[in-house]
Design brief:
Number of helices: 26
CATH topology of the largest domain: Growth Hormone, Chain: A
Radius of gyration: 23 Å
Number of domains: 2
Strand content: under 5%
Order of helices and strands: HHHHHHHHHHHHHHHHHHHHHHHHHH
Structural class: mainly alpha
Oligomer: single chain
Length: about 500
């Protein structure tokens, strides 16, 4: 099958000798560390709700407020087309993009925990700035500090979860990051629904409550152990062995520990991991994990809906309360979908989830475009029945995304990279992800204004392209030990031609 062809467990170096139990210590460490995802999620959910609140718009974006409420209806595609307003959302992701390179150095040299702690502190300060903002420059500074926090958190947390996990449950454990992200979005929508009634300072409470996930992430960074991979990389071998025994629940960890040491020796020989990422033998990891999947995750269009769900639903003719309820429904779909993915991804694999969900998402985007083409625009307001049906279609779209491109967009890249390039590669992952997140956030509303319903057809075409990318180029990674993923590419129908020099070296 195209895209298939992966190494059987018997061909791996020591994988058949690995032993583990699911210990309470392991579960605690992963759950607490995964709270880093709540930073990203809370911001995704809260920013769209705040930008639809009249009190917020009147204080910082009066022209948008007047345009929104002009003529007594809210059905114009362009009423929220304000580049400064969208900069309020997107500047966070530009800051995250830049900060991830500093995060790479910190993560590699000082460990995953230090990055998690630093990210939480920056996010906390940014939340205070936003809650206290009295002019746009304070908002932007606060958003940039939030972005630094997200850059460090998104760099370290997926790596932490993948490195702590036994291969057979790595998919479910890594998706704790996505689960806390989705829970953050859901909580943010609930907060927005409540604070929207608190005039004129409700938006301040919404933005200020971002300190809560920051504190949770800080506590996680303090309480959790460093990963054995990182400890070996830093030369703390006795501590690494002790932590590995503790999280695996057994003394019989010689095989896995020896693999970590071998991987570390290779890593120590590499002085410039960013330059080495460009080598031919890492070409599959670069193309698939560092560039392709992080970019495609944002080009599904889902985060556009999450960013601007309240704004989008208001634009499509729903009042502010109805739009917040609709976005609450969408965020609930994300949580449900992530739980489904966590339960099944290690059984059915990554490729099945990517491909099946992509087919659904293409269908839902096409249906959305047709509904809008027939029932919306030129001052027309959609009927209640059509509006409810549209919310249902978006709910199903988010449900499909939430069990595929959402969680797997972080899981698959984090498990593809060998230790010697892992921190650098994860920085590129976060950089590419944040760059496309920022671009989509900055230009979604102006694209909605000019392309109208056509933007949803554009997303459908992009999803078809990314599904084809997965079908032909991504091997199945389920239950393969993270230090031996490279063998998948040596046996892949396409990539083995690219990395043949590596085959000759083994």
């Amino acid at each position: 099958m195209a895209g298939g062809g992966f190494a059987e467990a018997g061909n791996l170096r020591r994988a058949h000798l690995y032993e583990y139990k699911i210990t309470g210590y392991f579960v605690f460490a992963c759950f607490v560390a995964a709270m880093g995802g709540s930073l990203f999620g809370y911001d995704l959910g809260v920013s769209g709700g705040v930008t639809s609140m009249d009190d917020f718009l009147k204080e910082f974006f009066p022209h948008t407020f007047k345009r929104k409420n002009a003529d007594g209806h809210e059905t114009d595609y362009c009423k929220f087309d304000d580049q400064i307003l969208t900069l309020f959302t997107s500047c966070l992701y530009f800051a995250a993009l830049l900060s991830t390179f500093a995060a790479s150095s910190v993560t590699k040299n000082y460990g995953r925990r230090v990055s998690i702690i630093f990210g939480s502190i920056s996010f906390f300060i940014g939340a205070i700035f936003n809650a206290a903002a009295v002019h746009i420059s304070m908002l932007i500074i606060g958003r940039c500090l939030l972005g630094v926090g997200i850059g460090f958190g998104n760099q370290a947390v997926p790596l932490y979860l993948s490195e702590m996990s036994p291969a057979k449950v790595r998919g479910a454990v890594n998706q704790l990051f996505q689960l806390t992200t989705c829970l953050g979005i859901l909580v943010a929508n609930l907060v927005n629904y409540g604070t929207e009634k608190l005039h004129p300072w409700g938006w301040r409470l919404s933005l200020g409550l971002a300190v809560v996930p920051a504190v949770l992430m800080f506590i996680g960074g303090i309480l959790c152990p460093e990963t054995p991979n990182s400890l070996v990389e830093m030369g703390r071998l006795d501590e690494a062995r002790r932590i590995l025994e503790k999280i695996r629940g057994t003394k019989n960890i010689d095989a896995e520990f020896d693999d970590l040491i071998d991987a570390s020796k290779v890593a120590q020989a590499i002085k410039n991991p960013f330059k080495n990422l460009l080598k031919r033998k890492y070409r599959p990891q670069l193309v698939i994990g560092a560039l392709g999947i992080p970019a495609f995750q944002q080009l599904t269009g889902n985060n556009s809906i999450l960013f601007y769900a309240p704004v989008l639903f208001q634009t499509l003719g729903m009042g502010s309360r109805a739009s917040l309820i609709s976005s609450l429904i969408s965020s609930t779909a994300l949580v449900v979908a992530t739980l489904i993915s966590m339960a099944l991804v290690d059984k059915f694999g990554r490729r099945v989830f990517f491909l099946e969900a992509s087919a659904e998402m293409i269908t839902y985007m096409a249906i959305t475009a047709i509904i809008l083409a027939l029932n919306f625009g030129d001052g027309k307001q959609m009927s209640k029945g059509i509006s409810i049906f549209l919310v249902l279609v978006i709910f199903l779209f988010v449900l499909a995304y939430g069990r595929s491109w959402g969680p797997l967009g972080w899981l698959v890249p984090s498990e593809l990279f060998p230790l010697e390039i892992r921190s650098a590669a994860q920085s590129v992952v976060v950089c590419v992800n944040m760059m496309f997140t920022a671009i989509v956030a900055q230009f979604f509303l102006v694209s909605l204004c000019h392309l109208r319903y056509g933007i949803f057809l554009l997303f459908a075409c992009l999803i078809f392209c990314m599904a084809s990318f997965v079908f032909f180029l991504l091997p199945e990674t389920k239950q393969v030990p993270i230090e031996e993923i490279y063998l998948l590419f040596e046996n892949h129908w396409f990539w083995k031609k690219i990395v043949r020099e590596v085959n000759q070296g083994h």
